[in-house]
Amino acid sequence: MKYGLMILVYITFVPQVLAHAGHIHDEAILVCSEKQQGDACNYTVGEKKRYIGTCQLFNAVSMCVRNQPIEYLSEHETVHSLQKPITTKNVDE
User: Fold this and answer.
1) Are 45 and 30 in contact (CB under 8 A)?
2) Which of 21, 26, 65, 68 fits a disulfide with 52 by CB distance 3.0 to 4.6 angstroms?
3) Helix (H) or strand (E) holding 87
């Protein structure tokens, strides 16, 4: 019974923790190296995916944390065309 309870706890909680453990792209750290926490940031991975978010501090490291859906880039878009500042649009306009 003791081992059964331990196995149940393991099966229930460990996959949830592992779901949040993932690879951090170097670009996510580089793009926030000279920015403040909360500043807008974006970076591309493999020139096919654009990540948009804000700089956040984790374990004393500032990195870009995605807060918008991943943008999948077409063949006609380039990394250079995406490096313009992110602007927000007022809904009332």
Assistant:
1) no
2) 68
3) none
Element holding 57 (H helix, E strand): strand 49-58
Task: Express each pLDDT in 7-64 by its tens digit.
Answer: 655 555 544 444 445 668 899 999 999 999 999 999 998 888 999 999 999 888 999 9
pTM of the predicted model, to two decimals?
A: 0.58
Q: How far is CA 7 from the centre of its chain?
A: 32
Which residue is it, tokens 């453990």?
Answer: 21
DSSP string, 12-53: HHHHHHHHT--PPPHHHHHTTTTS-TT-EEEEEETTTEEEEE
Q: Report residue 10: phi and psi, to 5°.
A: -60, -50
Question: Phi first, then psi: what are they for 3, rounded to 5°?
Answer: -70, -30
- In angstroms, the CA 19 to CA 16 distance is 5
CA 16 to chain centre: 18
At position 64, the amino acid (one-letter code) is C
